[in-house]
């Protein structure tokens, strides 16, 4: 359910067989059955599920996933934020979002931003060595417990870049997905 209102969303056109919206394998849609996939939005749900990084952002911040720039519009203007490094794998998303984002946040906030075009799973060597005070991974277009494996892989792989064990590090909607996975396990054990 999405509350009534006006929201921005980025949708991808149907992809040919073998190329999913985010690079994963897919089958070709049946003839005449094409649907667009929403991969980014700024609905109230998205805003609520990104509050943690906005509150925790300070010092050096690493964000995986540019999205529509919604998180950056809240993080970049913060006085306590010195630098934000964003890792985004889609050249098209960078080209589409960055001109609007830079205009929206203004030159002072924009000067804190560095964007790296790369896949976060392969970008560890490209990301300037830490330390980072906050790390946020938001690369998933839907809510699926399947993402928990990737979330664990990312948080383990980037843990060493934290300034300290107290530094914030999390993934978009991870707590909700953990809750859903536990429900799935309970339901499976009842059958």
Topology:
Layout: E1 9-12, E2 37-41, H1 44-48, H2 51-56, E3 59-64, H3 70-75, E4 81-88, H4 91-110, E5 113-117, E6 134-137, H5 147-158, E7 168-171, H6 174-189
Parallel strand pairs: 3-4, 3-6, 4-5, 6-7
Antiparallel strand pairs: 1-2
Quick overview of this protein structure:
By secondary structure, the protein is of the alpha/beta class.
Weakly predicted, low-confidence segments: 17-25
Chain-averaged pLDDT: 85
Q: By helix and strand content, what is the structural category?
A: alpha/beta
The share of residues in helices is 25-40%
> What is the ordering of alpha helices and beta strands?
EEHHEHEHEEHEH
Overall geometric form: globular
Count of alpha and pi helical runs: 6
Q: In percent terms, what proportion of residues is strand?
A: 15-25%
Provide the descriptors you would attach to this structure in a database record:
single chain, 191 residues, alpha/beta, 5-stranded parallel sheet, two-stranded antiparallel sheet, 6 helices, 7 strands, 34% helix
Could you explain how this protein is built, in words?
The protein is α/β, with parallel strands linked by helices and 191 residues long. It has 6 helices and 7 strands; from the N terminus they run ββααβαβαββαβα. The chain has helices at residues 44-48, 51-56, 70-75, 91-110, 147-158, 174-189; strands spanning 9-12, 37-41, 59-64, 81-88, 113-117, 134-137, 168-171. The strands form 2 sheets. The protein has a 5-stranded parallel β-sheet with strand order 5-4-3-6-7, sandwiched between helices. β6 (134-137), α5 and β7 form a beta-alpha-beta unit. It is globular and about 60 Å long. The two termini are 29 Å apart. 25% of the residues are buried. The model is unreliable at 17-25 (pLDDT under 50).
């Amino acid at each position: 359910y999405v509350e009534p209102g006006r929201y921005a969303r980025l949708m991808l056109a149907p992809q040919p067989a073998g190329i999913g919206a985010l690079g994963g394998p897919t089958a070709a849609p049946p003839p005449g059955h094409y649907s667009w996939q929403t991969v980014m939005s700024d609905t109230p749900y998205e805003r609520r599920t990104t509050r943690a990084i906005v509150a925790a952002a300070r010092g050096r911040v690493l964000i995986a996933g540019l999205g529509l720039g919604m998180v950056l519009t809240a993080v970049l203007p913060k006085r306590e934020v010195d630098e934000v490094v964003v890792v985004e794998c889609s050249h098209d998303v960078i080209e589409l979002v960055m001109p609007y984002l830079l205009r929206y946040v203004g030159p002072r906030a924009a000067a804190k931003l560095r964007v790296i075009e790369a896949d976060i799973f392969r970008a560890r060597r490209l990301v300037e060595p830490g330390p980072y005070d906050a790390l946020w991974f938001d690369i998933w277009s839907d809510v699926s417990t399947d993402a928990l494996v990737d979330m664990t892989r990312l948080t383990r792989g980037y843990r060493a870049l934290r300034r300290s064990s107290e530094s914030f590090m999390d993934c978009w909607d991870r707590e909700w997905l953990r809750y859903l996975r536990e429900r799935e396990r309970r339901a499976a054990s009842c059958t």
